[in-house]
Amino acid sequence: xxxxxxxxxxxxxxxxxxxxxxxxxxxxxxxxxxxxxxxxxxxxxxxxxxxxxxxxxxxxxxxxxxxxxxxxxxxxxxxxxxxxxxxxxxxxxxxxxxxxxxxxxxxxxxxxxxxxxxxxxxxxxxxxxxxxxxxxxxxxxx
Length: 142
Known about the structure:
The protein is an alpha+beta fold.
């Protein structure tokens, strides 16, 4: 099981590194919606990881499943095709930077991402999360 203090510190450092000022930690979508309702601009929403133990009594391993969302307030009424393309391009570029950081941190074999399963990383586009937010969600196992 991951140490949540270390996990939070990792993402705080990562958000600062990529210039994201809005960083929130959430449990589920309702929590996300209440946490971002007064925010504007690019936001990194980190979902607290789930975890499970696999293996036998004398040979076991914790599997952590993480997720984060990189979002921007799209405001559906003002979203033109050009603005939508720009939003997804900018958020997609930031997403690539974050994923590359996860992979690079995994390659050191120390810290929060030491056990990252690189093949588990998956990014999905998100549209109108909490009514107005768009971007990408990224899931991974570590």
